[in-house]
Specification:
five-stranded mixed barrel, single chain, 5 strands, 145 residues, alpha+beta
């Protein structure tokens, strides 16, 4: 996935070394965040904000030669809520697809090429033909029938 400045992304903290936080992004790419971008003001305990394997929402500050610089403190509450809500809905859709015996990673990546997950779920609820494109008619009826 191509990231650009000011994108809001979901990350997983991989490790913390000194004043640098190393992050894994959803698509498998890596990024870093310096201590000053974790929180405004003085940080007494960095692990209050970030710990290994914790999911956090970050803003892309810069992408240069494949290196992604991120910020936690510049993300608004509204942006954080939106990204976390999308993540929860994606996990729920993934579980439904697994129950149907399909490959959820493949189908979700196909859906993401055309829609945001939230938009897809809203459209699918209103029009079953949207589901048929990814699942076929019979399985689409089972999913939201």
């Amino acid at each position: 996935m191509k990231y650009k400045e000011d994108d809001i992304v979901l990350c997983t903290v991989r490790k913390i070394e000194g004043i640098t936080v190393f992050l894994d992004l959803e698509d498998g790419s890596n990024g870093t965040m310096v201590l000053s971008e974790v929180s405004a003001g003085r940080i007494r305990n960095l692990r209050t904000y970030v710990t290994p394997n914790k999911k956090i929402v970050c803003k892309v500050l810069n992408v240069e030669n494949g290196h992604i610089e991120l910020s936690l403190r510049r993300v608004t509450a509204k942006e954080r809520e939106r990204v976390l809500e999308n993540y929860k809905k994606e996990r729920a859709l993934e579980k439904m697809i697994k129950i149907m015996g399909e490959n959820p990673e493949k189908i979700i990546s196909e859906i993401k090429e055309d829609y945001e997950i939230v938009d897809f779920l809203v459209e699918a609820r209103d029009d079953a033909r949207v589901l048929e494109r990814y699942f076929g008619k019979e399985k689409a009826q089972k999913l939201f029938g």
